[in-house]
Records
---
Amino acid sequence: MTRISCDVVQDILPLYHDDICSAATRELVEEHLAECEDCRSYLEQIKSSFNLSVQAMEQNQLEVNGLQRFKRMWSRAQSAAFVKGLIVTASVAGILFLGYWGLFRWNVIPVASDDISISNIRLRPNGEIAFRIQIKDGYGADRVIFNLHDDGGYYITPVHPVIRLNKSPNFNFVSGELFTNPDNVRAYEKKKHGKDVEITSIYYGPPNNPILIWKKGDKLPVRK
Ligand SMILES: [Zn+2]
């Protein structure tokens, strides 16, 4: 049996460890290992370094998994943050819009009676009650709200936003002539709200202090 040197055995040992050497080589190596402490310990190093590398690979895999988990978490957090950002942005925009709308566009403030001047109340030949309105606050009203009460009171309320920018209101008949036919109002309200109420009075102005235009029994001058 040929004896081989430790250098040769240690060159071969990795192949032996991985079991990719021939049976003859394996036999030689095992004969040598049986007698050589140095080469046995070298083989142990190979085994342990292999184990280490397996451990290292597993550790690495854990880190990769951890990194992937972190990446996923990060992208989730990012999309969550993006959605949160969108919601916050939309909310702020909504609040700003509502604020703008509420202050400048939402017609909720009735024009005060003192700022309203009514004249030329009359009955037109076609049955309409007509009157001239002047709003003297320098702005006028942006909108008019009509409201028929159960007692037959028909309330016409000119309104404007909290903050007024427009000096020339869009609505035509807040300043000028208003024509209203009580029979037509009654028919309209019946159709729209199912409420058949005879119109017994007409008011123009704020709900708390409206100006009486006409009440049933009043004799109005008839003119166009
Ligand atoms: Zn040896």
---
Amino acid sequence: MNAENTTPTIAIVGAGVIGLSWARLADAHGWTVAITDPRPDLAEIVAAAFPDSATVRAAADLADAVSDADLVQENGPERLPMKQQLFADIGAAARGDAVLATSSSSITASEIAVDLDADVAARVLVGHPFNPPELMPLVEVLPGTRTASTTTDGAVALYRALDREPVVIGTELPGFVANRLQAAISREARYLVQTGVVSPADLDTILRNSLGLRWATIGLFEGNVLGGGPGGIRHLLAGVGAQTGGIEPGVPATDPDAMERLVDAVEATYGTGEEVYAELAARRDRRTRAVLAALADTDGESTTR
Ligand SMILES: NC(=O)c1ccc[n+]([C@@H]2O[C@H](COP(=O)([O-])OP(=O)(O)OC[C@H]3O[C@@H](n4cnc5c(N)ncnc54)[C@H](O)[C@@H]3O)[C@@H](O)[C@H]2O)c1
């Protein structure tokens, strides 16, 4: 943080879905925000997204955006050569004590930093949010093999200052943790729809009214403890668990025709296009805020812990 500033400065690199959401989160926390993106309509996008903010600006270029940042949050396209080049450029222009984070869902800090100078590589890590980061508290923090522990500590502190819930993951495995869990459930969901057991709409109804609601309040293992009654997880595994433990996971068809039919069925359920996206996103955000507010109301500060 700059000595003269009382709140941090964030550079948002890439003003797409994730970058603009990080920008809204930082703006809501009173941070100074500089946004960079090569798209020619960047100034219009920033003006439209932040009509009343004196502390959010469209930067002239990448160097201008990152030069004063405490946290650089990169949200460019998910392509390794592009991120490698971006971080070389970011490293050349950013302050020596800035945390250099990528929102990447799949590319690791070790891959990005492979050709970077040691002092830059030491400050690169993954800070992977769940969409949209302005509402979803989780940030998976994955340091690479060359990341300094002070960088990881600094990133955790900065994300906490944004009221996020950072979790440091020590192993750089594909999909990290949250998306691996999502992939496991998605596999079974696709199998159940493809084999005609449920429609896409019914599958979503089942999820929202059971696991979704459960997992908004307590975690999976905490749920196991409660599922076993006073005997806890041991009782659960010996009782109901002994019966359900033998469920064979389904294998969804992944050939192009089967995937096309699945996509058609989901599109027929929810629709497609700009208007549908805006409506569904607004509904998602309203409902997510309602759940978060209800949890904060009932639990106070420790809701997401
Ligand atoms: N969409 C999600 O659900 C989600 C969730 C978590 C993480 N992520 C990660 O966030 C990152 C961004 O994803 P997104 O969904 O916001 O993509 P997006 O396509 O909405 O936005 C990408 C933006 O990057 C810009 N860009 C292109 N080249 C650039 C450059 N050289 N410098 C700066 N910006 C550049 C594009 O103009 C575009 O505005 C990806 O790494 C992705 O893996 C996405």
---
Amino acid sequence: MIATVRIGAATLYMGDAYVIRPALGFHDADVMDPPYLIRATGAGRYRARRPMMDRIMDEELHSGFDMAIVNPLLCGAAIVFAHNDQLAELLSLAQGQFHRHALCVWQKTNPQPIANKHYRPDVEFYVHAWNRGYHPAGAICDLFRVSRITSPRGSARFDHPTTKPDALMAKILANVAGDSVCDPFMGTGSTGVAAIRAGKRFTGIERNPDYFQTAVRRITDAVTKARAVDQLEQVA
Ligand SMILES: C[S@@+](CC[C@H](N)C(=O)[O-])C[C@H]1O[C@@H](n2cnc3c(N)ncnc32)[C@H](O)[C@@H]1O
């Protein structure tokens, strides 16, 4: 069964993205942070001190994603995070199936190693690919498209191992053209919060009931605050 929750301009589905996303039809942008393909084993005693990596493996958040979910017939633009091991495939998809694309970088100010004797991931990549009519909105276009932003830690993670920072998602959403945004791997709802704050309609999908509930709570809060701002503006 697929649970559906509507909150203002947001519609959230609890279930499998690969089943639900194709049925949702066209959105102006798909903004997604899918499971990364990473090797999280090794590193001995150091690794033992990082229980978050166990969670990533237990929840299959280290197995990558099927790029068939990035479908240019279902979105005007796609913003997709990916780890090194899937980046070449993602760039090839962007090159072959979209009009233009940009490789963008989130430079983390507080990187944590995944395992010893490997590069520390102090940058994460995302690709912004678009078709005609969905060129980046251009509100914030940096020369090197680098965002230097701290990764959430502790309680700010919303009890999720890979929550994206609000500041990063706000910057991404400011550059998204159009009105409707879908995130098929919603997690705790970071894309949805940024979409609502940017005045867009949001559709999110998440399979994990705990993360889904967190997303409902965060997006309800964002919708309530956005309504309060609207009312204040009407009074002024
Ligand atoms: C990298 S996390 C996204 C985190 C999110 N950006 C945030 O800030 O909270 C990927 C999410 O996709 C979810 N997920 C993985 N496979 C899925 C699937 N097939 N359908 C729906 N959700 C899925 C996981 O439960 C996880 O919460």
